[in-house]
Amino acid sequence: MQTQRLRIAIQKKGRLAKECQELLKRCGVKINYTGERLVVHAENMPIDLLLVRDDDIPGLIMDGVVDLGVIGENELEEVRLERIKLGEPSQYQLLRRLDFGGCRLSIALDKDQNYNGPQDLAEQRIATTYPNILKAYMDKQGVNFSTCMLNGSVEVAPRAGLADAICDLVSTGATLEANGLKEAEVIFRSKAVLIQREGSFSEEKTALIERLLTRMQGVIQAKESKYIMLHAPSEALEKIVELLPGAEDPTILPLAHEKSRVAVHLVSTENLFWETMEKLKQLGASSILVLPIEKMME
Ligand code: ATP
Ligand code: MG
């Protein structure tokens, strides 16, 4: 059932929800999230948001029920492998990787246990929420194992005597440490991604997706960039510009009352560290300002 409005599935609550909402807001999509609705309508664009559990998002895309979705690559890959196994549709298109939701899927075991490599996991029982990704990895290593499927509290499985090791998502490692476990093997690195269903789209939808992507590019690029202004002695200009990351094309302006110094303005592709600022100062730069950028379009 095709609707005129672009349907985007995002996580309702959880680790991806806030940043998805923030990204859409920065892209100029106005949405009122109050209430417990499954579908919310954008006020200023033909976009409907589906607020669901993240587990459902890959399937909604692969079945062609929604047009776009934001999902962690770990969940996406797990569902894709499961669907291939079941002979169900498993296609999608990756539109872009996003700048949040970073984590890794790792095998962890008792911190006192010796570990020299995947072969040490042979014939062990590993508790996980991601049996398909784990199996794909272990098959590649040629190691036999058994799983214990758990949808939550995976990290307590070894202590509870349910498994010898676990395979779970890690970001800082604090949860592992709190449970007396150590990270032994990273098997998958994940970020949130924007994906699209297969099949054709109306001209209007195609144009809208293009627009959203351009805006997302601008939002993400702006977050990673800084606007830098400083005053510099003309003779040190070359050396100063060399120190600035991504400064291919700085704007050089004369100063009103000083002939030997100029103002330099530029967009830097990364943040300026204190160390660099100190070096700039040693080269004679002064009045160094580093400003955040809200939006950009090339
Ligand atoms: P839902 O109720 O929607 O099913 P969930 O409990 O399955 O939510 P969350 O814990 O909200 O999922 O995590 C969603 C996604 O966030 C993960 O699949 C992963 O891609 C990403 N993520 C980032 N950091 C972490 C982390 N430290 N632990 C778990 N997931 C993380
Ligand atoms: Mg989930």
What does this structure look like?
The chain has eight helices and 15 strands. It has 298 residues and is of the alpha/beta class. The chain binds adenosine-5'-triphosphate and magnesium ion. Adenosine-5'-triphosphate (ATP) binds at residues 11, 14-16, 53-55, 72, 74-75, 101, 103, 169, 171, 190. Residues 222-295 form the Histidine biosynthesis HisG C-terminal domain. Keywords: Amino-acid biosynthesis, ATP-binding, Cytoplasm, Glycosyltransferase, Histidine biosynthesis, Magnesium, Metal-binding, Nucleotide-binding, Transferase.
Quick take:
It catalyses: 1-(5-phospho-beta-D-ribosyl)-ATP + diphosphate = 5-phospho-alpha-D-ribose 1-diphosphate + ATP. This protein is α/β, with parallel strands linked by helices.
